[in-house]
Design a protein that fits this description.
mainly alpha; 15 helices; 2 strands; globular
Length: 458
């Protein structure tokens, strides 16, 4: 019920926000003497601004925010793009498009460090990889297709509309994640009390009551070496399939960047991505559906992957929609799409440790796709990108290390969910402040506030 309410909230608020653009643009056209001057003033503010890489208070603050954002963002499985873009824009001084490009570089580095750390970690409850390859294959193609759509919409949508949509989305997902975190915290408290009762009270063979007796489990979990753990977490067949899809999308982006905007070749390359994405998604969805149905007939209640939901046509369609939405938000915002994927994996019943590991694994592919595209477009300066990537690389590893140790010590996986909710809410605040400030300036400068033409703004 809570999921349906969240979807209804997102659809209704987003529809109202998008429809309001038509009223704003019509109002401007009625009260403006020359609509062309409005469009020109809007385009003139999209100039590239690259400050020099000089150590000072700006770089120091950016380093600290980048480290904390990467550390907590990778733990929550959301990347942290909603924090990086305002930081690079307001503190370092980059223009919005360059800030989004560098943000992708930071997310890619943090995700790579997080994936490397998670490959060395065993699944907390089962003898399976901590990376859920089935869910990764299900969401990766739709996420990457969504990023392509998001980049296209970022050209058309006015900045104030993007700000409103991001605030609507982040407030909804952060509040839902926080509610789920509270539910998990209560369940963990009950479980800990039950375990303490079982551990604290026993009766020996003579009927004497024993208090605080330490005992070993009947079937202790076998500890693996680091190499054995890495090998058990790697599924080369599925990993190769994800790499092939990534290469196809990269080649399409490279060819598209060399084509003339809105030419026949340009649109043909854009359309090629749809059958590739839907083909792989459909292949994985049918496999999960058939496997789930087979197990249900045999009376096997174990889920086919890390998600506890039953894969029906309705839930599969919902996953496809959320994958596209996550990628679209990533393209609009300059994030890796984890702001949707992280909460979604929790919503479909994936435990926090696996949800975090799988979300960052998928984000590694989606963010690296954007980095390659932005590199060919010349959207970011190499020195700044390399420095901030090194900061994010360290933060991604140590963030995972300390939080995983904290979860193991407190025996509360809900900490990961609270971190996820906090990062999304912080992103809503920062993106909201920056977006509102820029929108007020656009109104003051009488800039065009409606939909922009796609072909002329490429």
């Amino acid at each position: 019920m809570a999921t349906k309410n969240l979807v209804l909230y997102l659809l209704s608020c987003s529809t109202i926000a998008i429809l309001s653009v038509f009223f704003v643009s019509q109002y401007q056209q009625k009260h403006a003497n020359d609509i062309t001057s409005l469009l020109n003033s809007s385009l003139s503010n999209n100039q590239k601004v690259w400050p020099k890489l000089e150590f000072g208070w700006r770089i120091a603050v950016a380093t600290m925010i980048g480290f904390l954002g990467s550390a907590f963002g990778t733990v929550g499985g959301v990347g942290g793009g909603g924090i990086f873009v305002p930081m690079l824009n307001l503190i370092v001084g980059f223009d919005t498009k360059s800030a989004a490009a560098i943000s992708k570089c930071m997310i890619m580095a943090a995700s790579a460090a997080s994936v490397w750390y998670n490959l060395r970690v065993q699944h907390p409850t089962k003898e399976v990889p901590i990376l859920d390859y089935d869910l990764a294959l299900l969401f990766q193609p739709m996420l990457m297709l969504g990023i392509t759509l998001g980049v296209a919409l970022s050209v058309v949508f006015p900045y104030w509309l993007i700000t409103i949509l991001i605030i609507i989305l982040f407030v909804g997902t952060s509040s839902r994640s926080f509610s789920r975190g509270i539910m998990m915290w209560k369940e963990e408290t009950i479980l800990k009390k039950e375990l303490e009762k079982q551990k604290g009270t026993f009766v020996n063979s003579r009927g004497e009551l024993l208090i605080d007796t330490d005992y070993e489990p009947l079937n202790p979990k076998e500890e693996k070496t680091a190499i054995e753990t890495i090998c058990s977490n790697l599924n080369w067949k599925k990993l190769l399939l994800m790499v092939i899809v990534w290469v196809v999308f990269v080649l399409v982006q490279v060819l598209k960047n060399n084509a003339s905007a809105c030419s026949t070749w340009y649109w043909a390359l854009n359309l090629v991505q749809f059958p590739v994405a839907f083909g792989l998604f459909g292949f994985e969805a049918i496999k999960l559906y058939k496997e789930g149905r087979k197990r249900k007939i045999c009376g096997n209640t174990e889920s086919v992957c890390g998600a506890s939901i039953e894969f029906t046509p309705m839930t599969i369609s919902f996953c496809a929609l959320c994958g596209l939405l996550g990628g679209t938000v990533g393209g609009l915002l300059g994030s890796g799409g984890g702001f949707i994927l992280g909460p979604l994996l929790l919503e479909i019943g994936v435990i926090p440790q696996v949800a975090s590991a799988t979300a960052t694994f998928v984000m590694l592919f989606s963010s690296s796709l954007s980095v390659v595209e932005f590199y060919f477009l010349g959207r970011f300066p190499i020195p700044h990108a390399l420095y901030l990537m090194s900061v994010s690389l360290l933060a991604g590893f140590w963030g995972q290390y300390f939080v995983r140790k904290l979860v193991a010590f407190l025996k509360r996986a809900s900490i990961i969910v609270f971190i996820l909710s906090a990062v999304i809410f912080a992103s809503a605040l920062t993106m909201g402040v920056v977006g509102i400030e820029k929108s007020v300036k656009m109104i003051h400068n009488h800039e065009f506030m409606g939909f922009l033409d796609f072909c002329s703004n490429q």
